[in-house]
Amino acid sequence: MNEADTCREYVLPKLQQAGWDQTPHAIAEQQAITDGRILTLGQTVRRLARKRPDYLLRYAPNQTIAVVEAKRAGKTPATGLQQAKVYAEMLGLRFAYATNGHGIVEFDYGTGQQRTLEYFPSPTELWARLQGGATPTDPAIQAKLLTPYRVVPDKPARYYQEIAINRAFAAILRGQRRVLLTLATGTGKTLIAFQICWRLWQMRWNAKGEYRRPRILFLADRNVLIDDPKDKIFADFGDARHKLEGGVAIKSREMYFATYQALAQDERRPGLYREFAPDFFDLILVDECHRGSARDDSNWREILTYFTPAYQLGMTATPLRDDNRDTYTYFGNPLYTYSLAQGIADGFLAPYRVHRIISAVDAAGWRPYAGQRDRHGQEIPDAEYHTKDFERTVALQARTAAFARHLTDFLKRTSRFDKTIVFCVDQEHALAMQEALVNLNRDLTSQFPDYICRVTSDEGEIGRGHLSRFQDLEKDTPVILTTSKLLTTGVDAPTCKNVVIAQVVNSMTEFKQIIGRGTRVREDYDKLFFNIIDYTGSATRLFADPDFDGEPELATQVEIDAAGRVIDYSAGGEQEHSGIAETGAGEQYDQHTMPTTNSSAGQAHHQTGLPRKYYVDEGAVEIIRETVHELDASGRRLRTISYSEYAGNLVRTLYTDDGELLAQWRNPLQRQAILTTLRERGIDLDELRQVAQQPDADPLDLLCHLAFNAPLYTRRQRAERLQRNQQDFFDHYAPEARAILSAMVEKYTDYGLTQFAFPDILKVAPFADYGNVLEIAAHFGGLGELRAAVDELQALLYAA
User: Would you say the C-alpha torsion 204, 210, 211, 212 has a positive or negative sign?
Assistant: First the structure.
């Protein structure tokens, strides 16, 4: 019996016998718990297989409590236990079972005990054991733990969301006043918060134990982090919702939303939060809580301290680091952590390619000539300025122009309508970048005036309108947003394909928030990965941080010239493209004569005599380098090698020499297993032939050549050697059968291994001329004899 037979005939009846068929949700068979990691190797993008435990056992629709892994009846019961334990640890389950349909092995994470059973425990028994662990659950709380989720048809809870919801919900019911959840950007923290609130609201939980619904405050530091959840995910709360703003303290609702700024005191107001009693709110949700709310010296900390009687749930995307230690000191250790690396491994988050772009002034620094003055006539202090100084102390227009030119060319090579966010140093820099990009894309901005927009706090409602359209899946524009800090957190832009870093980022917390703008996956909109275009070295430096928990799929580094064009050294010298860019309607725009940007902010500083920075409009800046680094398919090691080298290294890890590979390749079934393994590790043979510039090579010979430096043969050479050395094989058959086999070899010569696909290949010319499959098989004595002949033909083709 195979595994499926064993499950159907033995495992499922045993589960039913134990009472796991009493409710429709109790047994989930072969349910996918991940989406499958996305691989982006070479030009190929594909998903690996989803993880599917044989059985998940649920006590309630949202309470998974055990996993069962089954193996065929001929194996020992414990064969699948290690796999079951892997799933149990991933899903946060206490009970793991393995079975061959007859014997059952249980591992209990609560006691650390492994034992052999004759029958599965019943749902009631497992639930009682789960609640009666080292710290038994109060019986009054046990029933409340089963309060159902709000069913969201298009957003069922993923496994890690279920863990986070259940752990936070249980902690609050048990009286834990401060709770922290750490989940990577893009993993649905707001949905988790909604389900926690909904369950507490439905069961009329509150901090005082009164018979009423709870009063809950959703707190964040930006309107965009408040308005979006309030109007979308929390919409089911209906009229219970209210946003606190404008200095008005409404007290008649139950689900409140507010920014810190709307509640805090300032020079004009004593603080709206003081209009509420300290025990008014039962629960406060602190979104993006790493952003200063828990710092001892933060003005916003006053709000949390004032509402000390309330339960407080913090949510953050960043694990513990020096720059967010206060958050963890205040809320305590997280109840659950789901990292960026795990999200990418599970296929819920998009992997990314990193393009490191280096300009001449960033590589070598910039120094003014003697007496050089900026656009406002201020003499620039004599010093050597570097990346950290640009756009803070010295604004080099030519550098911004070079970045804009390179980005424009990048989008022309990929897609000019790929959503892109450019993170600049400040609002002025964002404006200068926007103007440079507009002038380089006039063929599109003439058709789409909002093709490139700046979204900073200066734009207010207009900027929020640009952002809303940028987020809208059905709107093509805006395509490029330039910003500084406003869009670093909480902006859900599912189709954002390019995250551009034009500022120095020193904080790992901020860096993760920035790259989080691209981690959403939208397969239906062809969004499976995104690019990080790094002009300051921030990404490259922070990726090397040992605390970073998510590696890039691909990192590139190029040098670009003053016009932002990539410099090509392949011919042994420096080759540059023209600095002239087509802008539509027959016009040409010269990068070197780009008009200057006279910002009002710069003029204001000049008029006060206290320039914040110096504005340099003259000179030229070249992009001088671009390097390539790429992750292996495991996503764990960064590599700086080519696709061909990666393939060779992979084959060497799988086989000791070319003889071992050849021996397995001869067998069609074993060959298929090899091809499957290569695909799962990111190797596509058709693409490999193109990259290696060997379109006619036999795939086996190409792999052996790349891995073991074996001779490289073409398909025709192998076919000719077969015809020459194995004539006895062909002579064994009658003329019609011999002609069919010879035609099969010729098809292989022209098109490769796919021509041995049996029996489908027999349905096309020239084989169809001999009749249908059964008629063709008759020339060999039957279907079995035909298949044996085709298998032997392939074995002889790879005889040596």
Answer: negative
